[in-house]
Design a protein that fits this description.
- By secondary structure, the chain is α/β, with parallel strands linked by helices.
- The chain is built from 7 helices and 12 strands.
- The protein is globular and about 45 Å long.
- About 35% of the residues are buried.
Amino acid sequence: MNTEAQSTQRKQGLPLDLSKSELRREAVARRDAQSAVEVKEKSYSIEQLLFDYEPFAAAKCVMFYYSFRSEVRTAEMIRRALGENKKVCLPKVNREKRELEIYFVSDPESELIPGIWGILEPDTVRCQRAHPEDLNVIICPGTAFDRAGNRLGYGGGYYDRFMRSVPERIHFIGLAFSVQIFDEIPASESDVKVHTVVTEDEIILPG
């Protein structure tokens, strides 16, 4: 960890050299501490920046995640993308294979059902299977991000494995509140960086 990042952690009252699990808990606690009104308003600001961002605006097929608990809300983004005639895919967790499967969704109200951990997932009876080659953009959840594009997930590795398997042309965009942005987070060779992070305040483009 560099000196600047250490100084930032001191100012934030964080111990130096946090492990992934410790940083994950800290980031989720910050996110959970926001009021419902804050989450709604900040999510709307993130939506506006995202939809004006050229790689997303130009995308014909986007993979979203369906937000859960205090995550950046995506339900309105999904509906808006469909209204703008984008194809939208959502993931379904395959626990046996420890991987994500993706399906096209055209009517979230009728085509999504609670899956593992209670997160809404595509109903495979109603939704058509999609493939990574169909995608232009992947919208990634995360507990924390840094300005180098490193992403800290929830510990299962599902997104990292999926993102390693897709064509290189696909643009990865992380959504996060500003309280989830750190100057530096732990990363290993198996972790996949995002190309962009959108918060309520800015679009972060890792150098």
